[in-house]
Design brief:
flat; Histone, subunit A; two-stranded antiparallel sheet; 3 helices; mainly alpha
């Protein structure tokens, strides 16, 4: 499929790309070649091939969600650089509207 320079300009405008005339002239045959390759892929005789989302069967690799012992609040907050009201104290990043 051969693209005209006007079609390349149209695609560039849709993609919000500013192309010079030289770039349009250079891209027209390249994009035409890409579309030609896409047409070739579409011609592959794959009528009997079952569509797949992944080439290999996948198994669930997550573990069960089970409770386990963890650090106490005091142990966690002991390593914090700043603590306020039993929570990590962090710098304010959003200003309050007044």
């Amino acid at each position: 499929m051969a693209l005209s320079e006007d079609e390349v300009r149209h695609v560039a405008r849709l993609a919000r790309l500013a192309l010079t005339d030289d770039e349009v002239a250079a891209l027209a045959p390249q994009l035409s070649a890409i579309l030609g390759y896409a047409e070739q892929v579409g011609e592959v005789a794959a009528g009997e091939v079952v569509p797949t989302t992944h080439p290999f069967a996948l198994a669930d690799v997550t573990r069960p969600d089970e409770r386990a012992p963890s650090l106490s609040r005091e142990e966690v907050l002991a390593g914090a650089p700043a603590v306020e009201q039993d929570r990590f104290a962090v710098p304010r990043i959003v200003a309050e509207e007044g």
